[in-house]
Design brief:
The complex is a heterotrimer of chains A (293), B (322) and C (327). Chain A is mostly helical. Chain A has helices at 4-10, 16-26, 28-50, 83-119, 121-136, 139-149, 154-180, 184-191, 196-232, 243-250, 258-286, 288-291. The chains are: A mainly alpha (293), B mainly alpha (322), C alpha/beta (327). The B-C interface holds B 220-222, 224-232, 235, 240, 243-244, 317-320 and C 53, 55, 57, 83-89, 92-93, 95, 97, 100-107, 114-115, 118-119, 150, 152, 163, 166-167, 170.
Chain lengths: 293, 322, 327
């Protein structure tokens, strides 16, 4: 009896958020994802200080293989630039563009999806037509056209990625709003005098948050892939070193210098994998009953 | 007659979408910084004043904007997607010339993704905790996270340097001579790596999706009924369960079409596959805007058409929404 | 002389590590008769049906003792191949929800034809004609048209008729009906019962009807098996049990039939409708499982489980039973 008591006292009242956090902590894949992402973020934050080599400077013979020259531990690219420096400095650009584009995707998606789901009727019809329209345009081609017309620079690239990626987010938000809007507590808040803005932002959106958060994690990963793809096609900002840029620049030398594309691509892969794992972990944490299957 | 009205609605909305795509194209040319005539000519350096004047006249760039738009619409309606000043041919001719290889790649990659994906999904659903189930989860996660062009390049390294059994570039070998069958086999041989690269991500996704829906369906009442009827496992799984389990795969594949087409741009570029994707890549390098925008419009049309096709397929499979 | 349509003897089903879902269930169903199996949900009725069909929903459920014989043939000792052959031809089953029990993607005709051809090789065209006859026999007008329709185009009552037609396609000696009318309107319920009775008269099919509704039993059954928490608590002819139930649980169930609620029984004081719910599998202890909810229970009831006792033909498992347990 007495042995039970401290345990019972230590048990905090459970909230959905705390339960989700605990469930996430138990999810090994999710934690692995968090570790991977933390590593990449750390690389972006302190890497350039620890390894202050200019990624554009030619420091060795072209296409030096890895572990052959102490000056270029991961080898050099077709011009003789340090690959490690490129990867270290590219982390910032990649994360920045990914983050900015994802922020834009999520913002447009939520605003359009929430408006469509909340007001319904003609507004819904119009906004869904718009969404359909954007879904018909192959996103990469659309972004290619935008970036080509407006000259490649970091803000334009982030903007283009955001502009072409939001439809899925909007659909998801709309679906969640349609699900939550008819629920009792929404009507109760409304009859209690809650305005539209209050209902959308303070009542429905917080309740729709779990799937949107999961999807936001995936959107960041997708934006990073997108940026890498554009840079690979030669549409990155030529003045800033990014992982995609390294791959695109060296693609002709792939057989003679496998490392020039393998390492930066692997960096992209690890980053996106981290985000996907986090997304999966969050999904499991938010839907405990799905996990049992 | 219900089906006809549904089809009519579809066509109307497809036409609207198409109109929007064209207007968007028009706007992009005009909103872009610089002289629209120069944009249309492409930044190939030193376009002669005569060509610019000709473009201004041809596009009516001296006219008010709405007149220009109407004129532009009229041209697109007659299949005129503009003129590539780089290649000196109408854009539509360029596109049609490159359409075949892209469709071949797309069709092969998608068929591979759906057929193998569904097969693996069903197999793993029959053993939910088996090795295959876990393998599919891992492949799907890895495939999703790896940039598709990088996957392609890794394959090029493997099959170009280590194990040269598949060609890593182009669509055919110009040294191969022979009848249609020989040439078709040559193309098929070249198709293996690009189609695999394009399809493998979706294969993993669809197998995961199919596995989940199959598990759901296997618990359903009608599968229990089929068992109670004394049907064999082959009929229960192959007839009653499978068809229901494929429905979500069709839906998702239809929705992802634009995305898959985007992926094919990268895959084509990596493998020098002579399709619309490499054309788009080349026109980016050459700042050949009419071609790039023409490809964008044309791809949108393709997505719209294939979406309608998906819709029809779905209706054939599921009588409930006929 | 001939073996009964169904004989279940001492059937015990265990959920791995948790406990017994069914515990020594025994009953017989003579050919051509109807047996009602009653009890609340969670009593093991549906599990009994699925055990007879050998369609256990989970590999964690195992039959650890007992025997199931369909027309004298053991279901437990039969090979899976033989069981598959028996399903549809020796025994068949219809389910609670006819909407979800039919495959939404195939026509009614297609699904019936499948049953017919499974039991008897014949050209599709002939099987389709046969399916039309079956639909007519279960009272569906214009069978030709309905054969070409999909389940979602039919009403609930028609869907259940389709299920019956499908189940009877192989002319089985035993039909298991698991809550066949629960999902349907009351008026439709009466029609489905009519169809079942008519088909029974025509084909001589024995029916094992599972229900929570004593009223349905009163209307359909010759004999009743009352189940509670995985055990048979009373078993006997429907007339006797309805007039003089010997187990308090049976009494409670009868009190739920609207027009019987006012009846009093001489032997026992007035019992209200049963309060509480069936205990979870993990919460079952020794002693009578019904004791916690039973107004008559005393300490003895909580300590030892009463055996099923009485003359063969009408037995009950209750320490307070004036006839059975006193012997």
């Amino acid at each position: 009896m007495t042995a039970d008591r401290p345990q019972a006292a230590a048990k905090k009242p459970s909230s959905p958020l705390r339960e989700a956090r605990a469930a996430f902590a138990r999810n090994k894949a999710g934690v692995l994802g968090l570790v991977l992402l933390t590593l990449v973020v750390a690389l972006a934050a302190i890497g350039p200080f620890v390894y202050p080599v200019d990624p554009f400077e030619i420091v060795s013979a072209p296409l030096t293989p890895p572990l052959h020259d102490a000056a270029v531990p991961l080898g050099s690219d077709y011009l003789g630039r340090d690959l490690l420096a490129g990867i270290v400095h590219g982390a910032r650009v990649t994360l920045f563009v990914g983050g900015a584009a994802a922020a834009m995707t999520v913002t447009i998606g939520i605003v359009i999806g929430a408006s469509a789901g909340y007001w319904g009727g003609r507004i819904d019809g119009l906004l869904m037509r718009l969404t359909e329209f954007f879904q018909v345009l192959p996103p990469l081609l659309f972004a290619m056209a935008l970036v080509t017309l407006f000259t490649p620079s970091i803000p334009i690239i982030a903007f283009a990625i955001g502009l072409v990626s939001w439809p899925a987010m909007a659909r998801l938000t709309r679906a969640e709003f349609l699900k939550i809007k008819p629920l009792g507590y929404v009507a109760a808040t409304r009859s209690g005098g809650g305005g539209d803005g209050y209902l959308i932002w303070r009542v429905i959106l917080p309740n729709a948050a779990p799937p949107l958060i999961v999807s936001a994690a995936l959107v960041v990963g997708m934006a990073i892939l997108f940026e890498a793809g554009l840079s690979f096609l030669g549409l990155g900002d030529p003045n800033v070193m990014s992982w995609g840029l390294i791959i695109g620049a060296n693609r002709e030398y792939i057989i003679d210098g496998w490392w020039t594309v393998t390492f930066p691509g692997f960096a992209v892969f690890v980053t996106v994998l981290g985000l996907s794992l986090i997304g999966d972990g969050l999904n499991d944490a938010f839907n405990p009953n799905l996990r049992e299957r | 007659m219900h089906a006809m009205s549904v089809l009519g609605g579809r066509l109307a909305s497809a036409a609207t979408l198409l109109l929007c795509v064209i207007v968007l194209n028009f706007l992009m040319i005009h909103v872009a910084p610089g002289d629209p005539a120069a944009v249309i000519a492409g930044e190939m350096g030193g376009v002669s004043e005569e060509i610019l004047a000709e473009i201004r006249r041809g596009y009516g760039l001296d006219q008010p904007l709405h007149v220009q738009l109407l004129r532009y619409l009229g041209k697109v309606a007659t299949g005129d997607l503009g003129y590539s000043y780089y290649y000196n041919v109408p854009v539509i001719d360029l596109i049609l010339e490159r359409l075949g290889p892209t469709l071949l790649l797309l069709f092969t990659g998608l068929t591979f993704a759906i057929v193998v994906g569904v097969l693996l999904g069903v197999m793993s659903a029959l053993k939910p905790d088996g090795l295959l189930s876990h393998a599919i989860t891992v492949i799907s996660l890895v495939g999703y996270s790896a940039p598709v062009f990088w996957t392609g390049m890794m394959l090029i390294i493997v099959f170009g340097a280590v194990l040269p059994i598949f060609p890593i570039s182009n669509m055919r070998d110009i040294t191969v001579f022979g009848g249609p069958l020989v040439r078709a086999l040559d193309v098929a041989h070249h198709l293996v790596l690009p189609a695999f690269t394009l399809g493998v991500i979706y294969m993993a996704q669809y197998s995961r999706l199919c596995r989940a829906s199959m598990l759901e369906v296997l618990k359903s009442d009608y599968v229990r009924t089929a068992r109670a009827k004394g049907l064999s496992d082959r009929v229960i799984i192959g007839k009653h369960a499978l068809r229901n389990a494929i429905l979500p795969v069709i839906t998702i594949a239809g929705l992802q079409l634009g995305q898959i087409l985007s992926g094919s741009v990268l895959v084509e570029t990596v493998f020098n596959w002579p399709g619309l994707g490499t054309l788009a890549y080349e026109s980016v390098l050459r700042r050949d805007y009419p071609t790039l925008l023409g490809i964008l419009s044309f791809s949108a049309v393709m997505v719209i058409l294939i979406n309608m096709l998906t819709d029809i397929v779905y209706r054939l499979v599921d009588p409930r929404i006929r | 002389m001939a073996s009964p349509a169904l004989r279940v003897h001492d059937l015990t089903v265990e959920l791995g590590g948790v406990g017994r879902i069914l515990d020594g269930v025994s009953f017989e169903l003579p050919r051509g008769q109807t047996l009602g199996i009653v009890g609340e949900s969670g009593c093991g009725k549906s599990m009994t049906a699925l055990a007879v069909m050998q369609l256990m929903p989970s590999p964690a459920l195992r039959i650890t003792a007992g025997e199931i014989e369909v027309a004298g043939e053991s279901m437990l000792r039969a090979s899976e191949r033989r069981r598959r052959a028996m399903r549809g031809s020796e025994l068949a089953m219809i389910f609670q929800d006819p909407m979800t029990s039919l495959n939404p993607l195939y026509t009614v005709g297609d699904q019936i034809v499948e049953s017919i051809r499974k039991n008897e090789a014949m050209p599709r065209r002939r099987a389709m004609a046969r399916a039309g006859e079956l639909l007519g026999a279960v009272g569906i007008p214009d069978p030709e048209r309905h054969l070409r329709e999909y389940p979602h185009q039919l009403s609930g009552g028609k869907r259940q008729r389709v299920m019956i037609a499908m189940a009877l396609a192989g002319d089985p000696g035993l039909l298991i009906a698991d809550e066949p009318t629960t999902a349907l309107d009351v008026t439709v319920q009466a029609q489905i019962f009519d169809v079942l009775r008519a088909m029974q008269a025509r084909l001589g099919t024995a029916i094992m009807m599972i229900t929570h509704d004593m009223g349905a039993v009163a209307e359909m059954a010759d004999r009743v098996v009352v189940m509670y928490a995985g055990r048979v608590v009373e078993e006997g002819p429907v007339g006797d049990i309805l007039t003089a139930p010997r187990h308090p649980y049976t009494r409670g169930l009868i009190a739920c039939i609207p027009h019987m609620a006012d009846r009093t029984f001489d032997e026992w004081p007035e019992l209200p409708a049963i309060a509480g719910t069936v205990p979870e599998l993990a919460d079952r202890r020794h002693g009578c499982a019904f004791a916690p909810r039973c107004p008559l229970a005393d300490r003895h009831c909580a300590e030892a489980a009463p055996p099923l006792a009485g003359a063969p033909g009408w037995r009950s498992a209750c320490w307070k039973d004036p006839i059975g347990a006193r012997q």
